[in-house]
């Protein structure tokens, strides 16, 4: 029997809610697993993977999910409150990323190792710099009059799209980090594949959220 449009809509919404709930769990569970793995404080290096996991898996994911109409933890609050929470989470993510970058740079200096000579290192550096630029670009949404030839709606759309690129860079950096010698010798078998799935799951959910926002804007113009 063919599904009605209403049934399809409910099914799609239910799938989005389930995917969003999974993203919340993964966003928190991944850094928690990393914390157990590295035992923060056991070495200077131990802070690097934890801070990067907090930045790009937990804080940035939650900062973006906060605008999801189905799975935002603050969906009952006003948009003004959600925007402020988004700003706070993004700034915390940037702070964690900068600290993580500084720690690994100093640790390599102490051990006489080269800086940014791997794909993981280069992607991580790009992700951190991009995040800083994205946060700076977000100021334009607070003061849209600075961009006289751009509407606020267009600025929001481009900010969301640009933010998605930065988020995917961060997830790519996490995945490349899980291909490092340290991680592959510490985490093996099925656990390694499950770890790799974590940034993939959150990336797919965030991409779906941004694409839906884009489609909604297109429909509202007609």
TrEMBL record:
Pfam families for the chain: Cytochrom_B561
Keyword Iron assigned: yes
Keyword Transcription regulation carried by entry: no
Cofactor (UniProt): heme b
EC number: 7.2.1.3
PANTHER family, sorted: OS05G0565100 PROTEIN, TRANSMEMBRANE REDUCTASE CYB561D2
Top EC class, one word: translocase
InterPro entries: CYB561D1/2, Cyt_b561/ferric_Rdtase_TM
Record-given protein name: ascorbate ferrireductase (transmembrane)
Gene: Cyb561d2
Example GO molecular function: metal ion binding
Gene Ontology CC terms, in alphabetical order: endoplasmic reticulum; membrane
Subcellular location: Membrane
Topology in the lipid bilayer: Multi-pass membrane protein
Origin superkingdom: Eukaryota
Residue ranges annotated for the Cytochrome b561 domain, each copy included: 14-217
């Amino acid at each position: 029997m063919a599904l009605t449009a209403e049934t399809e809509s409910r099914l799609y919404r239910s799938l989005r809610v389930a995917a969003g709930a999974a993203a919340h769990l993964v966003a928190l569970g991944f850094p928690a697993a990393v914390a157990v793995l590295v035992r923060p404080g056991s070495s200077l290096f131990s802070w690097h993977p934890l801070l990067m996991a907090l930045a790009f898996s937990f804080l940035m994911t939650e900062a973006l999910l906060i605008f999801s109409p189905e799975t935002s933890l603050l969906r009952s609050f006003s948009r003004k409150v959600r925007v402020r929470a988004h700003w706070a989470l993004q700034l915390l993510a940037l702070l964690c990323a900068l600290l993580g970058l500084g720690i690994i740079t100093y640790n390599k200096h102490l051990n006489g190792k080269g800086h940014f000579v791997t794909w993981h290192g280069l992607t991580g550096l790009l992700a951190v710099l991009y995040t800083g630029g994205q946060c700076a670009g977000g100021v334009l949404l607070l003061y849209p009059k600075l961009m006289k030839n751009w509407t606020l709606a267009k600025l929001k759309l481009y900010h969301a799209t640009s933010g998605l690129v930065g988020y995917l860079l961060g997830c790519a950096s996490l995945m490349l980090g899980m291909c490092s010698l340290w991680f592959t010798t510490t985490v093996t078998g099925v656990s390694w594949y499950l770890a790799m799935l974590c940034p993939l799951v959150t990336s797919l959910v965030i991409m779906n959220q941004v694409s839906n926002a884009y489609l909604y804007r297109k429909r509202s113009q007609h």
